[in-house]
Write a sequence for this structure.
């Protein structure tokens, strides 16, 4: 996939993830969020280059931090 295609796919995934989270029932919200964050990191880790894809890098970094916080609070 081209670099531009990767970026479009990335932003479309984020939009779809937001819509999925909005539609998820309260009882499933945390698990749905974790699933979306894991998928985001696994599918788009190749865009985590702060030089070539700064915006994507920032979103991926934020997603990883949120996932880590949720997992720590879940373990406590």
């Amino acid at each position: 996939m081209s670099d531009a295609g990767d970026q479009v796919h990335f932003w479309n995934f984020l939009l779809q993830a937001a819509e999925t989270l909005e539609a998820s029932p309260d009882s499933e919200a945390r698990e749905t969020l974790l699933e979306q964050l894991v998928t985001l990191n696994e599918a788009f880790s190749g865009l985590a280059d702060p030089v070539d894809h700064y915006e994507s890098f920032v979103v991926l970094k934020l997603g990883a931090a949120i996932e880590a916080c949720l997992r720590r609070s879940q373990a406590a």
Observations:
- Residues 54-75 form the longest helix (22 residues).
- The mean pLDDT is 92.
- The CA atoms of residues 24 and 32 lie 7 Å apart.
